[in-house]
Amino acid sequence: MTLHIGDTAPDFDIDTTQGKIHFHDWIGDSWCFFFSHPADFTPVCTTEMGRTAQLAKEFEARNTKPLGLSTDTVEEHNKWILDVNDTQNTTLEFPIVADPDHKVAQLYEMIHPGESNTAAVRSVFIIDPKKKIRLMMTYPMSVGRNFDEILRVIDALQIGDKYTVATPADWQKGDDVIIPPSISNEDAQKMFPQGWDEIRSYLRLTKLK
Ligand code: BEZ
């Protein structure tokens, strides 16, 4: 099965560092930042786990639950978390899926044989409260992800949903947003009474109030 944006995120039952979870029930009414990493006790992964833990308040402010995954066991994860906390000056409180049988990694196509037959690459899935996949990103094992970008894209998705807008290249929270071409000027007047800057008929920028 190939996963696409807009698909329902595959559901699963699995053991984590915080006990067994049924994925969709665990997400509940939140958003989810579901991300895989190749292995415990490795340098890039240690920094990524530390960064996610440091950003706990930022994820919480976005009603987003982080969930990590690697093909290691709960016992290994728990030992490694002590190292993550120690080396990255943080307290890791989000769950990490233990997937030694590759059950979930296969379901989410996190194993790319060109990189490894046994370890996951650095996959990201942003999943909304309706359990739809809203974003997918895949990084190689050797490159740590940009967590500012992960927060930025969650902001963009949530603001897009709330105001029916799109966001331009390099958009940051507070910047102007795009009125999608599917919205007529007549409807836009009702939806965006603050007005907009019409650079082209298909490129209308507005400020959110
Ligand atoms: C790392 O986290 O540093 C790493 C893990 C697997 C392959 C390459 C790098």
Overall description:
The chain is an alpha+beta fold. The chain folds into 2 domains: 13-146, Glutaredoxin; 164-206, Antioxidant, Horf6, Chain A, domain2 (Antioxidant, Horf6, Chain A, domain 2, 2-Layer Sandwich), CATH 3.30.1020.10. It is 32% helix and 23% strand. The strands form 3 sheets. It has a 5-stranded mixed sheet. Strands 8-10-9 form a 3-stranded antiparallel sheet, with no helix packed on it.
Quaternary status: single chain
Q: Can you tell me the overall shape?
A: elongated
CATH H-level homologous superfamily name of the largest domain: Glutaredoxin
**Mean pLDDT over all positions:** 98
- E-strand count: 10
Using the coordinates above, name the CATH class of the largest domain.
Answer: Alpha Beta
Low-confidence segments, given as residue ranges, are none
What's the short version?
The chain has about 210 residues and is α+β, with helices and mostly antiparallel strands.
